[in-house]
Task: inverse folding
C-alpha cells in the first residue's frame, strides 16, 4: 500500500510528509493516526477491487448502453 500512487504521488508518503515532526513540531495526534489508518484500509480495499473495477470499466467501454427513449409527453386538454 505504501507504493500506491494517485497522480504520480505515493498517497501515504505524501500525507505523512505534511505531518512530519520537523514541519509541525509535534508527533501525530490520535485523530491523525486514526485517519491514516482509515486511509490505508481504503487503499487496501481499492487494491483488492482493482481487477474487478478494470473488468467492469472495460465492459462498459466496449458495450455502451443504449440511450433510453425520451419520455412520452401527454398534452392535457
Result:
Amino acid at each position: 500500500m505504501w507504493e500506491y500512487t494517485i497522480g504520480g504521488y505515493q498517497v501515504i508518503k505524501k500525507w505523512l510528509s505534511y505531518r512530519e515532526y520537523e514541519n509541525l513540531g509535534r508527533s501525530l495526534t490520535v485523530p491523525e493516526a486514526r485517519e491514516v489508518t482509515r486511509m490505508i484500509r481504503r487503499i487496501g480495499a481499492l487494491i483488492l477491487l482493482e481487477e474487478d473495477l478494470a473488468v467492469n470499466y472495460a465492459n462498459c467501454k466496449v458495450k455502451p448502453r443504449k440511450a433510453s427513449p425520451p419520455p412520452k409527453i401527454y398534452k392535457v386538454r
